[in-house]
Amino acid sequence: MNNASKLTPQEHDEAMAAADKKLEERAQRAKDLLSQRYRGLRHDQEAKHARKMQLERNMIGINEDRKQKLRSTLEQEEIQLQKDSRKRVTTADFESLVVIGRGAFGEVRLTRSRSNSSMVETSTGNRIFAMKSMKKRINGNEKSSWAFKG
After folding, report:
1. Where along the chain do its domains lie?
2. Are 46 and 39 in contact (CB under 8 A)?
3. Closest listed residue to residue 30, CA positions, set 38, 19, 42
4. Which terminus of the chain has a smaller tally of CB atoms within 10 A, N or C?
């Protein structure tokens, strides 16, 4: 016999209402995430258009061959900017300053973005970050349980 058959009709209704509320919350989080993503894409498109319009304003009075070269250069810069924005941030993009904590599963370090990492530099400046490194393998057992009982 399962737990659902032991519930009173009122408890069943409350359980269903709680499940519906959780589903609505998940749907709202997904909606917010998509909305944020599309706002970011729109902002990027508007910024790209603004850079193009600024270039066009600056090229008034220049001959057509030079204008085409400048437009081509801008297009190459835009392509590079898109590539950089898709680049994954790795530990190599940061220099370790100090270990601030160690635990059974890894360690936490204070880091600073490296000056040669264009993606990190443009998006974050030269700020300080906390980086948590997790061990993949614990005591030689790859199938270690990550669930803890309280």
Report:
1. 10-58+66-81, 91-134
2. no
3. 38
4. C
Give every strand in the sheet of 128-134, ordered side by side: 94-102, 106-113, 128-134
Contact yes or no for 106/133 (Cβ under 8 A): yes
- Distance between CA atoms of residues 86 and 2, nearest Å: 49
Record the pTM: 0.49
Chain segment 94-147, per-residue pLDDT in tens: 899 999 999 888 899 999 988 755 444 445 567 888 999 888 765 555 454 444
Higher pLDDT: 136 or 17? It is 17
How big, in percent rounded to 5, are the helix, strand and coil portions of the chain?
A: 60, 15, 25
Indicate the length of the chain as a whole number. 150
